[in-house]
Amino acid sequence: MRQEGLNMANTPKSTLRDRFSNMDRENRSVVISFSMIILLIVFGTLFITPNFASPTFLTQQLRIASFLGIIAAGQMAVILTGNIDLSVPWTLNLSAVIATSVMAGQDDRLILGIASAVGVGVIVGLVNGIGVAYLRIPAMVLTLGVNAVLKGVTVVYTGSAPQFQQTPELLSKAATETLFGFLPIAVILWAMVSLFNYLILSRSSMGRKTYAVGNNEIASYLSGVKTSRVLIMVFILSAVLNALAGLLLAGNAGRSFNEMGDPYMLPAIAAVVVGGTSILGGSGKYMGTIAGVIIVRLLDGALNIVQVPAATKDITFGLVILLMLFLYGRAEKVRE
Amino acid sequence: MMARLQTTWRMPDLWRYTLRHFRVGIAFVILFVLLGITVSLNPRFFTPAVLTSTSNQSMTLVFAGMAQTTVVITGGIDLSVGPLISMSNSLASTLFSETGGAFNMIVVVVVVLVVASLAGLVNGLIVVYGRLQPIIVTLATASIYSGIALFLRPQPGGFVPDVYGDLLTRRVGQLLPEGLFGEQPAGIAAFFESLFNFIPASFILLIVVLLVVWIPFRRSQLGMWVYAVGSHAGAAYMSGVNVKLARISAYVLSGLFAGMGGLFLTAQTLSGDASNGEVFTLQSIAIVVLGGTSLFGGSGGVAGTIAGAFALRLIPTILFFARVNPLQQPLWEGAVILLAVAAGASRIFTVRRWLDMMR
After folding, report:
1. Beta pairing partners, B75
2. What residue numbers bound the domain in which A246 lies?
């Protein structure tokens, strides 16, 4: 007690600045990325349109962001282990295509559709996970190849005989409508996924192991973590979340179609990294990923409003990622 | 507890040795097997016209793969290869002038190569001095470069002189002045005429690039440094290697090769399109692995990559001649790539102990 009192007397009053600089890297990136969101909203309101900060616009952006958010949640778990999942586009696409044809547009078969999407996700995740964990194929290469195969499967499945492509009304409602007039259902689903992901990553032994494997797999293995099992689990998590996002995206568009997943992979990785997760694995907060998704979405939304050409959009997007990286993605300065 | 750890798991030595040291050789074996299958399915494969079109279709991929290889050797990865090809393609298609003639063509080629190398330099500078991970840096710059490509060429089109296309995509014999070997060539002259009539110009281009750019680089001190850095950056630094310079030069070379890819794509399509190059990013990674270059850096080289690129390009040809249902083609193509790449990159065959695999 006395000790504490002494310390209190000696240390100067901690300012906001001190608290920020004393923060560890992970928390600092979360703070920076959330400040970036506020900055974007302020900037948008001042220079683009006063409606930028309006609840209608923001909830609409959140609704669109939720698809990306669900994908990024899975991608983050994979990146935390130091791997990467490049099979996002066609996992998403295949499960959407299979689920829509299973559901055949009927609301009462929605549960079947969800089950088949999850089934596709589990299978893809198992293949990716076993390849990375036991065959030790670099994830970047393996998931790239799996993506190509899934594309082939999708083309064979949809091409020969046109399948039923309309989604059931219930699914479309889940993807597009709002609850109580202001809360998009998709956002609620994203929140549920986020809660699940947060509990897994930050409050379970599985999460501890995920971070441990990302930091040093050999050390984790030698301390008794079944690292291969952890790798398989994160790949399954990622693939299942991709599959669910595919289902929602199909609902959003009212149908499933080929190449529907292409625009989501790189933004998802960007969102995870902008949210402060290290691409080498082992560090990063899930809150940061949420912020990253919102940043990517708001940026896109803002550039859409001012109707800049696609060229400007691409360049701005790249520059913002670089900017965020310079703010907190840099490695420590070491002598090689 | 300890008994369960598989620390003593071993691969048979001969297997491990073969797979570790002859991965580039394996790429050539795959290529020759695929070539054999192609020829058996289509005996007319070795005619000048078919050979030339196959070579032309593969060449952009070859350059994309070379661009990826130089960076992968340092242990990095370049996701901006595809967008750089698009950017070079778009730039070339806007710079060519209808009245410029030969001088204009040379200027365009030089400008495009310089711009592409500068783009590579930017990648390298950000990775090295920004102390950032290559995969994310090049993901960001990829977005920037495809933006620039779109800015240069919002709609597909533009002017590319036919002569330029002919120069790069026809056969050597077609480019030589007529009657070079006399009216009725005989003996050695006849041999040379038929030989030149056989060889695609793009093939000569590739050999020139190898002789003028890659081999001198590989044999220089800088080339050695690039491998050293990829093998173990720390050890390289301690041995006096200029790690930063080596890394940056790999990215510059990557940009240069991507620029060549863009220029060749321009000759092949005779127009500019800002999204033409996208596919090459992921394909280049696949063929680098197919070509026996380790994604962990420090080994491999351009030779395997070239074999890998031609092999990858043969797969759809084989599927076509094998009369595979066109709908199933992407599936078979994907399956072959997955198998080849997975077998080539899988570390279970090449390490001695289970623990080594986790490195």
Report:
1. none
2. 25-325
Query: A271 and A70 in contact (C-beta within 8 Å)?
Result: no
pLDDT by residue (tens digit) across A6-47?
A: 444 455 556 767 766 667 777 888 888 888 889 888 888 888
Measured at the alpha carbon of residue A71, what is the angle toward residues A65 and A77, in degrees to the nearest 5?
125
Structure tokens at B40: 């058996």
Map out the domains of chain B as residue ranges: 10-177+187-358
CA distance A22 to chain B (A): 22
**Tokens coding A103:** 């559901």
CATH at A33: 1.10.3470
Residue A181 has a pLDDT of 75
**Given the structure tokens 């290559």, which residue do they identify?**
B134
A154-186 confidence digits (pLDDT tens)? 988 887 655 567 888 888 888 887 888 778 989
CB contact under 8 A, B148 and A153: no
Tell me how many domains chain A contains. 1
For A177, the token pair is 């409508």
Position A35, amino acid: S
Best of B122, B338, B347, B355 to mutate (most A CBs within 10 Å, chain A): B338
The two structure tokens encoding residue A317: 């997007």
Tokens encoding B97: 């002038």
* Tokens found for residue B320: 């076509």
**What is B67-112 written as a DSSP string?**
HHHHHHHTT---TTHHHHHHHHHHHHHHH--TT-HHHHHHHHHHHH
Task: Kindly report whether the global pTM for this prediction surpasses the value 0.90.
Answer: no
The reply to whether B314 touches chain A by the CB within 8 Å rule is no
Q: pLDDT per residue over A89-136, tens digit each?
A: 999 999 999 999 888 888 888 899 999 999 999 999 999 999 999 888
Residue A19 within a domain:
no
Residues A216-234: tens digit of each pLDDT: 888 998 998 899 999 999 9
- Does CATH number 1.10.3470 belong to domain B10-177+187-358? yes
Residue A294's nearest CA partner among A194, A195, A198, A210 is A194
Cβ atoms within 10 A of the Cβ of A18, count? Answer: 12
C-beta pairs of B189-193 under 8 Å, 24+ apart in sequence: none
∠ CA(B350), CA(B353), CA(B356), 5° rounding?
75
Phi, psi of A255 (to 5 degrees): -160, 170
Instruction: Pick the closest to residue B291 from B13, B11, B72 (CA basis).
Output: B72
Identify whether the C-beta of residue B333 lies closer than 8 Å to the C-beta of residue B115.
no
Angstrom distance (rounded) from CA B229 to CA B212: 23
The alpha carbon torsion through B197, B202, B204, B209 (nearest 10 deg) reads 180
CB contact under 8 A, A330 and B130: yes
B204/A contact by beta carbon, under 8 A: no
Would you say the ipTM is above 0.90? no
B235 part of contact set with chain A, CB < 8 Å: no
Buried b (16+ CB within 10 A) or exposed e, B11-40: beeeeeeebbeebbebbbebbeebbebbee
Residues 6+ apart with CB under 8 A from B49: none
